[in-house]
Amino acid sequence: MWFYNLIVRDLKLAFYSSTNFLFAASFLILILILLPFIIDPKVNQFIQIYTGFIWLSIALSILLTIDRVFESDYEDGNLDAIILTQKPLELIVCSKFISHWIANCIPIIVVIPISAILFGININEIINIILNVLAGSTGMVFIGSAVSSLTLGNKRSGIYKSIIVIPLYIPFIIFGANQESVLVLIGLSMFAFIFSLFTTTYSLRLYVE
Amino acid sequence: MSNKLEINGLECIRDNRPIFKDINFSVKSNQTMLVRGKNGSGKTSLLRVLAGYIKNYSGNILFNGNNIKNDKELLSEFRFLGQKNTLKGNLSVQQNIALWELIYQVKSDTNEISKILNIEQILNVDINSLSDGQKKRISLARLIISNAKVWLLDEPLVYLDQDKIDLLQNIILRHNKSGGITIYSSNTDINLEYDSSIIMDDYVVL
User: Fold this and answer.
1) What integer best gives the mean pLDDT of chain B?
2) In terms of pLDDT, which residue wins out, A158 or B134?
3) What is the per-residue pLDDT across A139-148, written as a single tens digit (0 to 9) for each?
4) Going from the N-terminus, what domains does chain B have, and what CATH number goes with each?
5) B13 → chain A, closest CA residue
6) Are A86 and B75 an interchain contact pair (Cβ–Cβ within 8 Å)?
7) Is B20 in contact with B43 (CB distance < 8 Å)?
């Protein structure tokens, strides 16, 4: 029950803060608006360029939003209050992962089919893209949260985060751009989950001490 | 219900530097204890050790006879109020209280809380447009909604004027009467009523 309450709390915060739910998705839309100016949509194999752009903008929008996973709660002291409820740190971290994914990735997944129809991409390919994004974005959120927890309380750490996170996103982008590799993405996300859970829990524990 | 907090030979060393050592005291229900000392004398560290933040200490902290180290059930009876006011600036007072209720798994009566804290007029105002003193007062709501038995207040008097100090005094007395224990730190001359005190500078207990 408290696990569910923590997720509800974070979603409420995301909802109140007015930028959170729309931010990542609007970033994607803006990049896709620019796409036809760069490349003629009638070109052969447009689908590959389109998926490439989708993954690029997902990577960048997650990078822009990962600060919010812990940073705002850290700054105003709410993170202390949450940790001091003495609930298992691993589950607190999980609730943060889930709420951040819902607040930032679900809007992206809603926007993708709409934009894909506008670009004339056929339905099978849209389903493949969505499955890939569903599987891959979770892992990217895990890794992003883990890295942002490492630099907790360190202001102006944005550039370091990007330097650490972007290389870790390469496998997701390679397999995400490939239509038939949803299973690999699931595997990668599971691996990222284990890695991120331990890293995040450990760095929160260090922060508490 | 009566509770007792007993500290025996508490010692904390961080980065090879002793923060404090040989701290002994005991506080019972319906008592307030003051932790005094200069800046950097380890007041906050002591409260953070008691709150269960810092686990790297030696000595015993006994709550009702049980060692609190690694006992999450007992540690959740402690509520720490630090220097950060734990408020979300873009939300109203009421929304902030609702978020705390989600963290602490409690339902509380907002009307009653606002009456106790005298914040009825500003209940729907955004935190960002309030003064530091008002924020401090609202952050006290976090103590009231939780049914923790031991309150650990780190410099609670900062920003508060005399009226509000009286208000805090009443809140603490109300908590202590229901079997609670309050420990607070301060380095000013104006103080709340206290039953015992400890000076951190030279590790001596009075």
Assistant:
1) 83
2) B134
3) 999 999 999 8
4) 1-77+151-206 (3.40.50.300), 88-147 (no CATH)
5) A209
6) yes
7) no
